[in-house]
Write a structure and sequence with these properties.
alpha+beta; 4 helices; 34% helix; five-stranded antiparallel beta sheet
Length: 152
């Protein structure tokens, strides 16, 4: 769990978002390759967002829009391509927690597919908008879970 100092969140507009970052924090979710940033700083070439972590390798930066609190994932291969991960930081940390609650993920596609099917409605209840985009991050993660890609 990474909890950020008050000084790092001073420019974030929402008091609720500042509270999440300074009190609850952001957990790593290694089962799906997400690592929380150890320090908040601007996403390269996207100064309106603080980098709060990254997915996988080579590291797709995950940014928090300081003005509206949306969580966005930026392509590591493109300066312009991005997608909304969650509509709020609260939904993002709740989604990471929900995925972690499923425990170790299976590499067996038969088991993994069932896990992904059970996980989808849980994630939809947290942030329905985040799963509405066919090219969205969480649908991609669910597809990868179903294929056994994150199994240990």
């Amino acid at each position: 769990m990474t909890i950020y100092p008050v000084g790092q969140v001073a420019t974030i507009v929402s008091p609720q978002v500042r509270r999440i970052l300074t009190q609850r924090g952001i957990a790593d979710c290694l089962s799906i390759g997400f690592r929380a940033a150890k320090e908040l700083g601007p996403v390269q070439k996207h100064p309106t967002c603080f980098q709060i972590g990254a997915f996988g390798l080579p590291g797709a930066p995950v940014g928090l829009n300081r003005a509206d609190g949306t969580v966005v994932c930026f392509s590591p291969w493109s300066d312009t391509r991005s997608s909304v991960v969650n509509t709020t930081l609260q939904a993002f940390v709740d989604t990471l927690d929900a995925i972690a609650d499923f425990g170790p993920l299976s590499p067996d596609p038969d088991v993994a597919e069932g896990t992904a099917q059970r996980m989808r409605p849980v994630l939809e209840r947290i942030d329905p908008t985040a799963l509405a985009d066919a090219d969205g991050v969480w649908l991609n993660v669910l597809d990868e879970i179903a294929a056994g890609m994150y199994g240990s």
